[in-house]
Amino acid sequence: MSNSSAARTNLTSSNVKISSRQLGEGTFRICLEGTYIGGNRNGQEAACKRFKPRFRSMEMEFFASDFQVADCVIHYAEKWNDFAEADEEILVTKGHLISSNSGLKYLAEPLIRDYKKFTSNSGWVDDDGTWMTDAMEAFSHYTYHASRGRLLVCDLQGRYKENRYQKSKSRFELTDPAICSIARSYGPTDLSEKGIESFFANHKCNGFCNKGGKWRRPSYPTMWFPKSSATSMFSSSVSHKLQLSNRTQFRLGRMGAIEEQSDSSDDDSW
Questions:
Q1: For the whole prediction, is pTM greater than 0.90?
Q2: Three-class SS of the chain
Q3: Which residues does the chain have with pLDDT short of 50?
């Protein structure tokens, strides 16, 4: 998938110099600024993401699924690009793993400036009323339809890169997407059936939906999670609680991430 027209990769640049300058921080990870050394992206800015120490136990599970998620999202972006207008096409960032001198693992990828979050993986959709958010919301709906209800691409974030002189070269550039799937096959950010239903409980079809005929959607979806723009993660040990047959309740936890209702605020588990 790295050679896909819908992929935004490190190209031939494999070495990155990591600085101490922090670009951002989420519930689970910190992003530092980096610079590519050598290759096609020599001198360009990179985003270098690592887990916070208290969440490093999930590192292997996350990295094991991250490239699988990227390849799957790239696949559906290609299908979307086949029918979308030229200035509505999607590129999906796919990075690679690097290690610092101290042995810390980082996911390095081309930096996206003017970053915006369109949706989360727990059903939240930005209500800014822009056509860009409508398009990203519709892309999520399309992935559910195109996969015959098996999965939903979500947690869409990045930017719309507008080319004022050549409209056809304008595009969406996305990073760190998540996938919610019936089988929960896509790692800690996969909120499974409850993640899918929560999106559709909050989604109203717009002008980008139903191209080529009516797209499928769940009949009576339930909002299982409190609305939050944060990315939420659960380990594989709680997969059964994300199935529709399980009645576990959820609440907002640290920095807006979703956690079980019964969890203690002092619990360091994830």
A1: yes
A2: CCCCCCEEECCCCCEEEEEEEEEEECCCEEEEEEEEECCCCCCCEEEEEEECHHHHHHHHHHHHHHHHHHHHHHHHHHHHHHHCCHHHCEEEEECEEEECCCCCEEEEEECCCCCEECECCCCCECCCCCHHHHHHHHHHHHHHHHCCCCEEEECCEEEEECCCCCHHHCEEEECCCEEEECCCCCCCCCCHHHHHHHHHHHCCCCCCCCCCCCCCCCCCCCCCCCCCCCCCCCCHHHHHHHCCCCCCCEEECHHHCEEECCCCCCCCCC
A3: 263-270
